[in-house]
Amino acid sequence: xxxxxxxxxxxxxxxxxxxxxxxxxxxxxxxxxxxxxxxxxxxxxxxxxxxxxxxxxxxxxxxxxxxxxxxxxxxxxxxxxxxxxxxxxxxxxxxxxxxxxxxxxxxxxxxxxxxxxxxxxxxxxxxxxxxxxxxxxxxxxxxxxxxxxxxxxxxxxxxxxxxxxxxxxxxxxxxxxxxxxxxxxxxxxxxxxxxxxxxxxxxxxxxxxxxxxxxxxxxxxxxxxxxxxxxxxxxxxxxxxxxxxxxxxxxxxxxxxxxxxxxxxxxxxxxxxxxxxxxxxxxxxxxx
Length: 288
Prior knowledge:
Blueprint: H1 3-25, H2 33-54, H3 58-64, H4 68-93, H5 97-118, H6 125-145, H7 150-169, H8 173-194, H9 201-227, H10 230-236, H11 239-251, H12 258-287
């Protein structure tokens, strides 16, 4: 098996874990989203610190703590991913995974807009068209249900801003996330001490495992991005919202309306245009 094949398989496994995570969190809906998030933060810190120590990257982690600018950006990234995690967990308990999965579909297009606003990147005609189609999908859901799909909007925006901050920080992904969750840990511990419940053994086991399903996919993705073309990784990542959507409708029994179908069709067309634009740009660079 070649290294590139291993990289693709690693990314596929990461997306399968992310994609089926709503089914996992559905077994914790008897707890509040705040308590689940606090536990996820706690057990993620323990998992990441173990990985950092095992891989010998603790020196790099300590070095990042000495830079106030980097630390402030990492804290902002932690806030963004914390909000993202909370909204995702909330969507499972509220029976709105279908809506939250749309946020991960829209996320690449949000990144395009953020690149335009922050880095003054120019957009091709196809990229503009893909963004307009994504906005149209949001408007369709707003018209159909009488209010904007806030969960999808918040998930795509927080994940987009998170990706933007990671691009600015330019620190190893695992090291960065370790610091992000460490900075959020005091809030998590405070919540668990004052408002947390005493879960039974089965529930506690599931909560502890949330650290592994948080760290595992990230490490798999980090490994994959080191040996597989980013365009390929980007394509494989679409498997995540596809599987989340499958979980919502097939495993969790959420109702799929005509408005959802229209919005999904618009987003898929937008993603086709967006992907074509990315591959065209890569091909043009390769020919220069």
